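>> received
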Amino acid sequence: MTAEALPGLHVVRIGHGGHEPMHPAGDPVPAYAASGCFDLLGPPTVVDPDAPASLPTEPVAALGVIGGAIAQAVAAGARTGQPVLVVGGNCTVTPGIVGGLQAAHGADARIGLVWFDAHGDFNTPRTTFTGRLGGMPVAVAAGLAYPAWREAAGMAAPLPTDRILFVDVRNLDQPEAALLRATDAVVTAVTPADDLRRAIADLAARCDRLYLHVDADVLDAALVPNHPTVEPNGPGLDDTLAAMDVVLATGKVAAFALVSVFAGGDGGDRSLESGLELLRGGLESWRRHGWPGAAAGASGRV
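>> returned
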């Protein structure tokens, strides 16, 4: 299958880390583009969310506005049937990505979230120890916190927790873990592979589309040394890529986000190298396995 026969990625490039503009020195996206990764599925379309230059001063309101712009950018690609890649930024992009998929496919679309991260980001204002909004986006998407953020980000309906699969999340706050256990969400590890395959097969059977979210801190600390929430005792690149391939092999991944790769500062070169490996490996798997709505012969399947 030639690149010319593929529809091309719809790449949504995030210029904010949460509600703050990303420093250019730390932005990995120029290196991603220069590597040629975006061309693996054909000529790409690269867009920036159209967030206003002047954002609300209140952080939750600002995240809602940014999320709404992300949703519009995601929906533009999802409506064409292109695979949607979101790169840059951090985990606060999540409500906007789900909002974009809902805008394209309907509020009642059966969308599942597969969350690769060292953390659950499932805190609420009642469970958090730090108050960090970056630790809350999955709870927001699930309708458990900050409905104004979720609604502004284009989510017409919360994501049912039985459509959320957490992969790794080796560091959960105790109240966060208790909240997670009280829902229908599922937690599995990157390995052993059989557990992951069963969990993915169950989720995929109940969903029409999946959103694969990968925070680089799912990797062992040595592979992302400058990540602000780096965690030890994590998986290596080979195991993580193999687990991502299990998700992509369903043929149901409509959106793939790779976030929280920081190219600047001490350790930035190593983190960028890891990010590039995750991106290239994920895109090669996507090309092999296809995505929902791909035209016959255009999914990269051979």
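>> The first strand starts at residue 10 and ends at 13.
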